[in-house]
Specification:
Keywords: ATP synthesis, CF(0), Hydrogen ion transport, Ion transport, Membrane, Mitochondrion, Transport. It is found in: Mitochondrion membrane. Belongs to the ATPase g subunit family. One of its GO terms (cellular component) is proton-transporting ATP synthase complex. The protein is mainly alpha-helical. It has 2 domains: about 50 residues, no CATH class; about 35 residues. Helix content is about 60%, strand content about 0%. It has 3 helices and no strands. The longest helix is centred in the middle third of the chain and has 26 residues. It is extended and about 70 Å long. The protein starts with a helix and ends in a 21-residue tail after the last helix.
């Protein structure tokens, strides 16, 4: 199998899942998301989080850590700096608070 055949084959495999998993939410997805959030909130309020196995809790924590890392990486890319935001002259307003 040559590289072009392999690339075509793997490209169709990736496109098959990317088309479904990476699409933006449609209007019909919002009621489902609201219902799922409501169910999750009710389960948390009822204390069902105590019934989760340690393995599942660890996997959930791992997913939450991954999401946090992607968020912070996006912040670093957006700031174009590892620490702090760049100061743009004229973009910040100085407000002096004077109370009578």
């Amino acid at each position: 199998m040559c590289a072009a055949d392999y690339a075509k084959e793997s490209g169709t495999f990736v496109w098959k899942y990317a088309r479904v998993e990476l699409r933006p939410p449609s209007p019909k997805d919002f009621p489902l998301a609201i219902a799922e959030y409501s169910r999750l909130f009710k389960a948390g309020s009822a204390g069902r989080w105590r019934d989760i196995a340690v393995k599942d809790a660890f996997l959930n924590a791992l997913v939450a850590t991954e999401v946090a890392c992607w968020f912070f990486l996006g912040e670093i890319i957006g700031k174009r700096s590892l620490v702090g935001y760049g100061r743009v002259d004229g973009a910040f307003l100085t407000v002096s608070w004077r109370f009578p």
